[in-house]
Amino acid sequence: MNIEALPFAYEFDIARTALVLIDMQRDFIEPGGFGETLGNDVALLEAIVPATQRMLEGWRQAGGLVVHTREAHKPDLSDCPPAKRNRGNPSLRIGDVGPMGRILVIGEPGNQIIDALAPVEGEIVVDKPGKGAFYATGLHEMLKRRGITHLLFGGVTTEVCVQTSMREANDRGYECLLLEDCTESYFPAFKAAAVEMIRAQGGIVGWTAPSTTLLAALGHP
Ligand code: TIU
After folding, report:
1. Confidence band (pLDDT; 50, 70, 90) for 220?
2. Are strands 97-98 and 101-102 parallel, antiparallel or unpaired?
């Protein structure tokens, strides 16, 4: 399959491509979670849910592999370096109890993927202690076993966990495309800059395209 993208056309085979949705969890998208404790307006992120849901449904119907990630730590926080927990001045730190349970802790209500994008059987769910999806997760091995060579990225936030994951994937040899309308930042200018820098210099990190282009190619106009 060949689709229009920037900086030039993107070619992929559905059987070798995974849709990777980064950290679409309540902690970042709903009030009372980690995103809000950092002082952010979470409403901005919620706006991408309908487009991301359409992309997810279209990709499932096409039979493509789906990977969901969650930024998540063990309950004893042994995988959360003090440098991460102590940074800045959030109203609640990782591991503290908030309105949706303990912040960024595996199994807590806030750590679940939002209902609209909930994983279904057969999809990969990765709990990641870092910003990147490949650090300390085994994701590369899981994808290699399935013959995956191409990754379509969506999720939050564009310049933090999405961009970090795309760069990690790029260094591991994947051909990466960012779905522009399925990703968002708490800072619109940072999203715009991240999208630009990913596709600059001949696609130094990868390609970008709107999900509507992908869905049209999959027969979902
Ligand atoms: N998932 C992710 O991007 N984690 C963050 O902490 N992002 C922020 O923008 N804070």
Report:
1. confident
2. antiparallel
* 128 included as an active-site residue: yes
Helix (H) or strand (E) holding 98: strand 97-98
Is 41 assigned a catalytic role? no
Q: What is the b/e burial string over 89-118, where b = at least 16 CB atoms within 10 angstroms of the residue's CB?
A: ebebbbbeebebbbbbbeebebbbbbeebe
Look at residues 184, 136, 198, 210 and name the one whose alpha carbon lies nearest to residue 28.
Answer: 184
- 27, 80, 131, 161: the catalytic one is 161
Residue 218's pLDDT is: 96
CA of 145 to the centre of ligand 1 (A): 28
pTM of the model: 0.98
What pLDDT score does 141 carry?
A: 98
Atom of ligand 1 nearest to the CA of 35: 10
Helices (H), ranges, 43-187: 43-46, 49-61, 82-85, 139-145, 163-171
CA 75 to chain centre: 22
